[in-house]
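User: Last request for today: this protein with adenosine-5'-triphosphate, please.
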Amino acid sequence: MRPVRKPGNVVRPEDVDGVASINTFARTRNSSYPQDSPGPTHRILVLDEDAIVLSTLERMLRDTGYGVAAVARPSEALQALEKSEFDLILADLQIETEAGCEVLQNWRQRWPATEVILIPRYGSIEAAVKAVRLGALDYLPKPLRAEHLRGVVQAALRQREHTRQARSLARPDDQPCNLHSVIGSTHQMQRVFDLIEAVAESTATVLIHGETGTGKSLIARVIHSLCSRRDGPFIEVSCGAIPETLLASELFGHTRGAFTGAVADKDGKFRAAQGGTILLDEISCAPPSLQMKLLRVLQERQFEPLGSNRTLTADVRVILATNVSLQKEVEAGRFRADLFYRINVVNVELPPLRERLGDIPLLATHFLQHYAAKSHKRLTGFSDEALATMQRYYWPGNVRELANCIERAVVLTRHEQVLKSDLPPALVQAVDGDTPLHLAAGFTGSAMTLKEALAEPERRILLAALRANNWNRIQTAEMLNINRTTLYKKMKRYRLDEAEPERREA
Ligand SMILES: Nc1ncnc2c1ncn2[C@@H]1O[C@H](COP(=O)(O)OP(=O)(O)OP(=O)(O)O)[C@@H](O)[C@H]1O
Ligand SMILES: [Mg+2]
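Assistant: Here's the final one, the structure of the complex with adenosine-5'-triphosphate:
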């Protein structure tokens, strides 16, 4: 059941009696934070030209334990950012104006690890969509609720921690793979991070579901790197790439003469992964006979090599990955229901890249730094047009495709910035041209109904409208000119009723 939202303090100018100390950097020395509170090391830059709002926010954030700099103008914000490092910017920017856009773009390009939350005076769907597209983490039109704002700020700072550490990935002395190798600042990825951290230490079987290139193998490695087996082996087996007849022998090993061609005893991957982790990728490709053996390993931790009656014990953590819905495979009779229930213990859903537009600038910048360093090129970032094009593309190959696209652009560009013309022509054409959506989406093989094609844009518009109205459903329905029941139904269909982090925080 969703918790009932309690009425919190409302940050409104009329609640405030003092006036802000403009342009001061204030850091509290108060160390009596509750356990879960942020330490004073987090620094927030607040920009609002309304002096009373500014002072209210400054005081509220300072009382929560953050270091706060309060400024009234974008030029002052720029000076502050150039002087010291901030974790988060809370800014009253009207993103509808060209000036507002420029300010946000400049911040995101120059300080990509500093998260930005916009707190404009007036909200609109278009502006919310634009803000997220330009890299803002959130869009909260006024009036602001203190409790709600605290929750959002706390979540943003947690994310900033991940981002900060992820940026160090490019350093050659860095660990090859850990939680910080995973880049993402959207709330969908925040959930993934929380889940990974929660399950890493347990021995629970993990099922990772996501389209190709969303990072399933990466996440599996990260889980391994976080658990006590990290010094043991990590073995990845792509079940789809091995002929069905050889798969069982590949996993469990065989004895000499077990089948034609088995000229010597061979240890399988489960044996090789002893004391560590095994990732069984494309698990939906496992044939029925293998599914039965897998069930036994998962339940009893025991298996026999082919042709042997010697029972071996598997001291192995099992992670499974799939890019198709196993539930649907069960319904179609292709996957054993008992095995599905056994492996569906902890389910990590990796969202496609097109559903986390806010991560695109961050990931693109990360890959740019990585490939520019590799090819000894000095590149400052992306042109606005290039970024906008990338954010409008469908990315059927997800993060892998983005990485390849940036690698190509870094090699080809003759400018300091990556321009739109440096992006792959097919990508630009898919975005600009009149390529039908389903082709731009990469669904060249299977047909897509109009309803399916319109689902994603509809979901995004709803999300933006809900955010623009602070998740007030009545106002959202009015803004979109649909009735409330229709809105509820659509929210349910797109699972937006679950995607309401602000409410849970409040
Ligand atoms: N969030 C992320 N941050 C940084 N790099 C990422 C992220 N997600 C994916 N990558 C990188 O993108 C590439 C593809 O990721 P990965 O191989 O893990 O995808 P996958 O889901 O396992 O794909 P497939 O279904 O084809 O096996 C890898 O180079 C990986 O390091
Ligand atoms: Mg993979």
